[in-house]
Design goal:
- This protein has eight helices and no strands.
- It is an all-alpha fold.
- It has one domain.
- Helix 4 packs parallel to helix 6.
- The longest helix has 22 residues.
- The radius of gyration is 16 Å and the shape is globular.
- The two termini are 14 Å apart.
- This is DUF1836 domain-containing protein.
- It comes from Facklamia miroungae.
- It holds the Pfam family DUF1836.
Length: 177
C-alpha cells in the first residue's frame, strides 16, 4: 500500500475513550493496531501476534485477562508500536514507567494520542506545498517532554523516509500522485 501525504494528514490516533471497551483476542489486537497506525507506518507491520505475546511475557504490558487483551494492554501496545521504531524496547519500557509514575494509564495514553496527532500535523502540514519545510515550535513541559519528543522524532523519521523514497523533498508531491 502506498503511503500518501493525504493519508498521513488524515491519521488520527484514538483517544482512550475511543479505544474498544471489550476484551479482544491477540489477532483482533493486531488487526486493530494495524488499522489505527496504517497511515503512519509506511507499509511496515505495526505489530504481530508474536510481538504481543513477547511483550506480555516480558512484562512490558499489563497482565492480560485470561487469553484476552483489554483497553490497558491495547493502549500500551499502540504506544509500543510507534515508540519501538525510535527507541530500543527496554528504553520504551523505561519511558512508559517514568510516565506512569506521574499520571494514570488513561492520562498517559491520552497524552501519547494527542502528542502523535499534533506531531504528525505539525511535521506534515507544509509537505508538498512547494515551499521550504518548516516546523513550528515544540513545547516540552514537565509531564509531556518525553512523549512530545518521541512523537516528533517519529513523525520526522517518517518524513525522512518519504523524502528518500520519493527522490527528494521537492518530489514528494509527484510521489503521491
Amino acid at each position: 500500500m502506498t503511503i500518501t501525504i493525504e493519508k498521513i494528514l488524515a491519521f488520527h490516533c484514538p483517544a482512550w475513550d475511543e479505544l474498544p471497551k471489550g476484551l479482544m483476542f491477540n489477532q483482533e489486537v493486531v488487526d486493530y493496531i494495524q488499522e489505527c497506525l496504517d497511515p503512519i507506518m509506511n507499509s511496515e507491520v505495526a505489530m504481530t501476534s508474536t510481538m504481543i505475546q513477547n511483550y506480555s511475557k516480558w512484562g512490558v504490558i499489563p497482565k492480560i485477562h485470561g487469553r484476552k487483551y483489554g483497553r490497558e494492554q491495547l493502549a500500551f501496545l499502540l504506544i509500543i508500536a510507534v515508540y519501538k521504531r525510535i527507541l530500543p524496547i527496554e528504553k520504551v519500557r523505561q519511558g512508559i514507567e517514568i510516565q506512569m509514575r506521574s499520571v494514570s494509564i488513561e492520562q498517559g495514553y491520552n497524552l501519547f494520542a494527542q502528542s502523535m496527532n499534533v506531531a504528525v500535523q505539525r511535521i506534515f502540514k507544509t509537505v508538498g506545498q512547494k515551499r521550504s519545510f518548516s516546523v513550528e515550535g515544540i513545547e516540552l513541559s514537565s509531564k509531556t517532554e518525553g512523549v512530545n519528543a518521541i512523537s516528533h522524532a517519529y513523525a520526522t523519521k517518517l518524513l525522512a523516509q518519504l523524502i528518500i523514497e520519493s527522490g527528494g523533498y521537492d518530489q514528494i508531491g509527484e510521489y503521491n500522485e
